[in-house]
Amino acid sequence: MDPIVAPVTALIAQPVGILRLSGDNLWNRIHALFPGTPSPVPRKATLLSPTLHGQPLDSVLLLYFPAPHSLTGEDVIEIHAHGNPQNIRFLLQHFERLGIRQAKPGEFSLRSYKNGKLSLLKAESLHRMISAPTYSDFLSAHTSFSQPERHPLAALKDQFLDLLASFYAVLDYPEDLSDSPETPLVDILLEKIVSLQRLSRHHLSLFKKNRRFFSSFSVLLAGPPNSGKSSLFNRMLQSNKALVSPLPGTTRDLLEGRLSFPFGDLLILDSAGFRSSDDIIEGMGIAKARKTINQVDLLLWVASPESPEPLPFSSRTKTLTLWNKADLSSPPPSISPDFIVSARTRKGLKSLLLTLSSLAEDFYSAPNATDPLLDSERQALCLSSFLKTLISAESSLSSHAFDLALSALEQARHLLEDGTGMISSEEIYDRVFSRFCLGK
Prior knowledge:
Elements: E1 4-7, E2 14-23, H1 26-30, E3 46-48, E4 51-52, E5 55-56, E6 60-65, E7 75-83, H2 85-97, E8 101-102, H3 107-114, H4 120-131, H5 135-146, H6 152-171, H7 184-210, E9 217-222, H8 229-237, E10 255-261, E11 264-270, H9 280-293, E12 298-303, E13 319-323, E14 339-340, H10 349-365, H11 377-398, H12 402-420, H13 426-433
Parallel strand pairs: 1-8, 9-11, 9-12, 12-13, 13-14
Antiparallel strand pairs: 1-2, 2-7, 3-6, 4-5, 6-7, 10-11
Helix pairs in contact: 4-5, 6-7, 6-12, 7-11, 11-12
């Protein structure tokens, strides 16, 4: 494969910036950048000075991992340079002149997979580790990565193979099947199928429960038009991110802002005011806000003297009610707000932010279960299809239609192989690895 390079660290000003390269005969390809330097000792950091036309460019630490004992199974070199983004960009450009192209997202991990260094399940667990919103989510993904036999699909596969082996064993002795569906051996097979169904539903339920739309603790400001959501949004962020106007319907789309704390980020979202509108764009914004309510961790419903309406529908998302513009009037008896605030005078904002930060800290530090979970929507879809074939197999076996039951079980086997990556499919590769960040 052609050699590739990518930054492992972000292109921002920082103490150290890391470049990763992979390819065959890699040291000889980049040796021109280090004239007169012998081949570095494998797995030992070497201090070197890349040079161009006799001019030293930087002082770097170089780590060399020769094939096949490397991340990708090819020669891999990591260069730790000073983290000025212009310095890293110049090195990237120079490597490109040496015939080393910039890698696509996930291309290093894809090469690891194709060269037998990484299974598909471990690759998806690795991606979930990188993007995990909480430490407990990270530990769950790490369990699947470091103990692949505990991955839900791997555990299901073991039980399923036991079922399939038992089914073929029963078919080898047709005399044991000649009486009725109540034959003990058939009952055993049905019990195994039902057990697999139960386990599949359990893992799908856990995946749905833990699936998140936003990667941080998220709070949505929602309410009627002119309730002061955008002014409150700006005050909370201490910025002027949102346009503020006395005209209703100013906010059309979701606006995002973040407050960073030592335990994690608090993501605050401002949304379109809830009302009936003939404006197509505003209507799209309202529909998006309604949908987002079910995707956030907390809903802040904002009412005010001009817009005293309570939340017009029930929601399973935890909700706090704010009475905004408290400098104009107190809330009416029909509304019992959790917080009384004023975006203009900042009344109640400190108490509100303390509560939000406390809820966010609880979210990030909660001792959630770290048991392995499904890593991706792709895996969940495979498992959902697998469950449907098990239901079909159960129905056929209960009717003594053994040929149909076997056909359903063989289909289930292919679905599991698809889910675990045992069947070669370029489409699966693209779906999995394109989600990775550069340098991974």
